[in-house]
Design brief:
Strand content: 15-25%
Radius of gyration: 21 Å
Helix content: 40-55%
Number of helices: 13
Number of strands: 11
CATH topology of one domain: Spore Coat Polysaccharide Biosynthesis Protein SpsA, Chain A
Mean pLDDT: 89
Shape: globular
CATH architecture of one domain: Alpha-Beta Complex
CATH superfamily of one domain: Spore Coat Polysaccharide Biosynthesis Protein SpsA, Chain A
Low-confidence stretches: none
Order of helices and strands: HEHEHEHEEHEHEHHEHHHHHEEE
CATH class of one domain: Alpha Beta
Amino acid sequence: MSVLTMVLAAGTVAGMTFQLAAGRLAARFASRRPPPTGHRPPVTLLKPLCGAEPGLADDLATFWRDDWPGLRMVCGVGDADDPAVEAVRTLQARLPAADIRLVVGGPARAGNAKVANLMNMLPHAGAGILVMADSDMRAGPGYLEAVVGALAAPDAGLATCLYVGRPEQGLPSRLGAMGINHGFLPSVLVGRALGRSDGCFGATMALARDTLDQAGGLAACAEVLADDYQLGRAVRGTGRSIALAPTLVDTRVDESGWGDLAAHELRWSRTIASVAPLAALASVVTQPALAWAALPTVAWPLLPAALACRWWAVRAQERALGLPTAPLWLIVLRDWLSLALFTAALCGRSVTWRGRRYRIRRDGTLESLA
């Protein structure tokens, strides 16, 4: 065997092992149930908003499914003309007894507009636990029980959640959801199984107010794109760990076209590369399309096994997450798209976020290109 053949064969075997582990771990995680606890401290939900995604008021309402005493929701927008204001007003009218507050603008400024929004919202939070969650997330029953329970672990300083992509109409939206469900989510589970515990995700970041203060406050992540990772890093710097709550939230995936899909996924990939460059490079073994491209010419006997492992992993994840069955052609298309975007992410540092262009500096901070 040539050196190239040996390298590609070894990478393919590593990728097959990853796929088998990813399928098993997804099934195991989805079957977890949070242990019942009587610990119900006051909770403030912080929801930074920018624009009105489809169904925003319905998404916000899902966080009120639990009968949680002392629950408050603080929604924040940058200015009064933001379309999200109407969604919040709709929710307030729908749930008149709920403590739902709207914060418009404020003095805080930051390179990361979402963090600036959160900084303006923070003075309106109540006592107890802070739960920050991105605007496009939907919570299921028992969400707060699972998150607060995870945070109650002896060494936990922050609790976070994984999320499942639920596509809206169109092929780009469906492919975007598949990228989350068969790429991002299983990669996190495999990483944690291998000992990586630095993952912190905007789907949910829950922590006590004093923990946030000890970690340097929101200012610690005000100038970086990966604000969720940076907040988790700051909490770990206090000697506490990041707990993964035994629950999943849903996110609507509504890509208006191929350009939006590419922009979103390039931003995610380049964000990961900015905080963990070696891990981003090593993730090449998770790209099944690399085997599709290389194996027919240099190590073709491995191709049927690689295809079978990928097919089994996707089907296992679909069953575990309650997803519709994707046809084989769509799985292959998603894998080729992932490889193309993985390659493109390594060839630049600019991203588009909320209609604005930025460059990610080597230290992870943002430089506006507008």
